[in-house]
Every structure is written in structure tokens, then in C-alpha cells.
Amino acid sequence: MRKIEVTVILLLLLTFVGCKENSITKEVVDYKSKFINDSNCSQIIDKVFITICYDYKLKAARSVAYRLEGNLVNNPNIKKRPSFYKEPSLEKRYQIVTTDYTNSGYDRGHLAPDAAFDWSQESLDSVYSLANIIPQAPQVNRNMWSQVEEYAREKAVELGEVDVINIVKYAKRSKRIGKNRMAVSRGFYKILYNNEENYKECFYYSNRLNVSSRDDNISKHNINCDTVD
Q1: Domains in the chain, please, with CATH?
Q2: From residue 45, how far is each of 32, 37, 51, 64, 123 by CA, in Å?
């Protein structure tokens, strides 16, 4: 066998081995299908820009998935916030209204945040559906959760895009608020991932009303992604 033929064969073998190693080391995850499916959700609501897993008994979202585009998330075009609205795809008996939050002690907290979707009127409107809103402790919503939302946008800019899924954790017997008896969560997870970049990172936030945001930072909420349930 000629020397040039041996060289070509060796190069092909090295390429094959390299591809095989990459396929082994690159971890492919699909958190969206894991948490948003017919088994977990009473209704899956497709808002084009975000996907909501809604629970009829809780009258609240179990999870919300979306993709952050790095070239869009920090280009705010819309400054005026839309009004919250009842989710039209839900039957009236499962809908939540803004007055369900009145005097509850909880904020109307976004799962998919407006700051990541204010680059068009359509995308911004999608996150103001009350199906995307859950009761959040004020200190968590305004000071703590907002930090990890900003971090997610920074990662999207760094990596080009980041997939996000927020998973809400409820007790077996959840506290309820409002005339429509909406469930209040114990806390919520945020999963960030990009399969192409072999990146994933997870966080957990408690939804306690008496929680302090003093000296809080996102590193205190960073968790092993294998613990998310």
C-alpha cells in the first residue's frame, strides 16, 4: 500500500474517532418535552413566543418555556407595558383575573419576563397573558428573580441563544388566593441550556413572603440540574 493511501486512511480514522468522541461528550437535553407534555399539563398554551403548561386544578402555570435570542433580548423597542389579560384559550372557569391578586400580599410575577420580549408588540403582548403570571413574593419578584432573568439575557448574548424553562413547584395542598382560588407556589426553578454549546445551568428560588433579598445574588440559588423535579 502506498504511503499516501495509508495517510488518507489514518486521517479518516482520526476524523471518525473525533466525531464519535464529540457525540459522547456533548449532552443533549430536551427539558421542554420533559416538563411540557400531556401528562403534566391540563392544557398546553402556545403563545408563539412562549409555551405554557397550565393546570386546571391549580389555575396556574406548572411551567413556561421559551427561547432567548441574543440579538433581540437587549433591544427594547416597546417602553409602555401592556395590560394583563385573561388567557382567551382557557375556559372561563379556569381563567384568572387581575383582581385575584388584590390584597393578597403577592405580586403578579412573570414567568417569561417582559424585559426579554419587548422587542416587538406581539412578543411583549404574549407575556402579559395571566396564564404566564403567578403569585410571587414581592422581594423575590422585584429583587431576586429579576437578577437571574438579567443573567439569562446575558448568557443569550454570550452564546447566541439560550433555551429557558421555568418550572413552578407546588405543595400537595397549596395556599390559594383570590375569588378564583389560584394556587400559590412553594418556589420555582429556572433552567438555562444550549445544546450546541453543551451548556446548562439551573437555579431555585423559594416563594416565601418573609424572605430577605439583602445581600442576595444568583450564586446562592445555583443548583445541580439533576435535582430539578
Answers
A1: 28-227 (3.40.570.10)
A2: 13, 11, 6, 9, 15
